[in-house]
Design brief:
Blueprint lengths: L2 H12 L16 H12 L4 H5 L7 H10 L1 H27 L13 H21 L1 H4 L19 H17 L41
Helix pairs in contact: 1-2, 2-5, 4-5, 5-6
C-alpha cells in the first residue's frame, strides 16, 4: 500500500463526525478508496473480503460506483483480470507448501492435505469459469479431408429402379409426352423375312406375305 492510499484509508476509517463518533461505511465515491479497492483486487483478494475491512464501503456501494463511474468500472475489471494471475500464483504457493502435511508422529496430515487440495481446486474452478480461454481446459480437434462414397448399380438393379419409377408415375397419372416408333424385328434378334428393304423404301415397296 502506498503512502497516499494508507492515509486515505486511515482517514476513512477513523474520521469522526460532528459528535466525535466514528462514521459508518462510506457511500459516496472516493478516488482514493476506489484505488485502494482495485489494488487489493489486483492482489487476488475477493471483493467480499475487501469490503469486510472497517471503513470501506459495502459491496453494494462498490457496484453502484461501477454503474455510475465508467472509469472506475474499467479499473475494476482490469484489477479483476490481474487478480486472476495473482490467484494462479497462489495456487502454486498452496500446492508447494508442505509445512503442515506431516503430524508429529510422522504420519500424513490428511486434513491439511485435503484442505490444500480443496483450496487449489476451488481456485482452478473459479478461474476456468471466469476466464475459460486462458485457464480453461481446451481440447482442439482438427478435422480435415474429404470423404467420397460411390455406389455402383448393376443392370438388374437399374432396371428394377426404373420400373419402380415408371410404376409410381403411372399411379400418379404422370404421362411422358412424345411418341415411340415400333422396334424392328432385328432389334429383338429376329431375321427379316424377304430380305432387307432398300434404304428409303416405302411400305408400299415392301413385299407383302402374298407375294412370297
Amino acid at each position: 500500500m502506498t503512502e497516499p492510499e494508507a492515509q486515505a484509508l486511515q482517514a476513512v476509517t477513523a474520521s469522526p463526525d460532528d459528535t466525535g463518533k466514528p462514521t459508518g461505511r462510506p457511500t459516496e465515491y472516493s478516488p482514493a478508496v476506489a484505488d485502494y479497492i482495485c489494488a487489493r483486487l489486483a492482489d487476488g483478494e475477493t471483493l467480499t473480503a475487501i469490503c469486510r475491512t472497517r471503513g470501506l464501503p459495502s459491496r453494494q456501494a462498490v457496484h453502484r460506483w461501477r454503474m455510475r463511474n465508467d472509469a472506475f468500472n474499467d479499473a475494476y475489471m482490469r484489477a479483476r483480470e490481474i487478480g486472476m494471475e495473482s490467484m494462479s500464483d497462489d495456487m502454486l504457493t498452496i500446492a508447494d507448501d508442505d509445512t503442515a502435511d506431516t503430524l508429529p508422529d510422522g504420519s500424513p496430515n490428511h486434513a491439511n492435505i485435503g484442505r490444500a487440495r480443496l483450496q487449489v481446486d476451488t481456485r482452478k474452478f473459479l478461474l476456468a469459469k471466469l476466464a475459460p480461454k486462458v485457464y480453461g481446459d481446451r481440447v482442439e480437434v482438427d478435422v480435415s479431408g474429404t470423404v467420397q462414397h460411390a455406389v455402383t448399380l448393376d443392370d438388374r438393379e437399374r432396371m428394377r429402379r426404373l420400373a419402380s419409377f415408371m410404376l409410381d408415375d403411372q399411379r400418379a397419372g404422370v404421362t411422358i409426352e412424345g411418341s415411340a416408333e415400333p422396334a424392328s424385328p432385328a432389334a429383338h434378334g429376329q431375321p427379316l423375312q424377304g430380305g432387307e428393304p432398300e434404304p428409303g423404301a416405302t411400305p408400299a415397296d415392301r413385299p407383302s406375305p402374298d407375294d412370297l
